[in-house]
TrEMBL record:
Protein's UniProt name: AB hydrolase-1 domain-containing protein
Domain spans labelled AB hydrolase-1: 82-343
Sample GO molecular function, one term: hydrolase activity
Family: Belongs to the peptidase S33 family.
InterPro entries named among the record's database cross-references: AB_hydrolase_1 (IPR000073), AB_hydrolase_fold (IPR029058), Serine_prot/Carboxylest_S33 (IPR051601)
Species whose genome carries this gene: Vitis rotundifolia
Residue ranges of the TM segments: none
Keyword Hydrolase set for record: yes
Amino acid sequence: MSTSLYVGFGVVLYWKVFCPFFCESMDYFHQMLFLFPFGGIKGSTQTTPKSGRLENCSLESSFIVRWSSIADKSIPDPPTAVLVHGILGSRKNWGTFARRLAQAFPTWQFLSVDLRCHGDSASISKRGPHTVAAAALDVLKLVAQLRITPRVLVGHSFGGKVVLSMVEQAAKPLARPVRVWVLDATPGKVRPGGDGEDHPEELISFLSKMPNEVFSKRDVMNALIKEGFSKDVAQWVVTNLQQINSPGSSSPSFSWVFDLKGIAEMYQSYEETNLWNIVEDVPRGVHVNFLKAERSLHRWALEDLQRIHAAEDLAADEGGGVEMHVLEDAGHWVHADNPDGLFRILSSSFQGIKT
């Protein structure tokens, strides 16, 4: 069955639990409420305090008791992979792919998060500055409070720099070995697309001029396309609209779920953040994988590829690892353009670590 809980620091957990007996599922709930005593089951009358809140997240797994293993040390903790979305995205971007991974690798659990200013986390007040490093620290604090030690980190685009920053900032709670996947992003300079390509900075600027409340998703899509953005991007952007009930109005309206001002800061940080030091002096026990989308050539320069290939040889001598991969038949939206190919490439990380 699928269950959701609110826990004391503002995290929403979703996981898949297969319980042969009703008593086991009830025991599972009691364990969760014991570990997070300020939490309340979604839909109950209990309230969740706002202090100390972190990100909203989704947890996908295919086993019965995850959290009881914290109290019972005879049960090994399942290995965890953390999935991080890109700018203007949300944890929902990973939903279908995370469920596929959970079904294929039932001894693992997969945690996807809404970064600050995005998705459900946009409603959680966060102190600035809003940067790559701050977003990475949020996730590190989250996994520490969940008592999870990630063995795999996967970040798409902006999220790629977030997971690299997690490695840069963390001693614990990152395990060794840990595999890091940076999907269609480079550690340093962000190179804009050419003519006909979508520019995130221009998209953020255009969205900032739109009203906070709109009455038609289609109108928003048409406005984006008219401005020169692709249909795919227009369809993706409107997933950030949620229906609201306006007093005195008989027709539905929609509002944005993100904090666009904060996101603009985050994207500026993404352009400015340079994490080549992690790649060219990779910590022992860390394996950094870069995945380049075949049709996303504008995001990669020859200099980037040469530095990554040079880092591959250096890391092997230092007890770490750097590796380059290419995902065929895919543009920047790798988990949507070629999910089968991405699944095959990522699968090695979940087969190679003992559980």
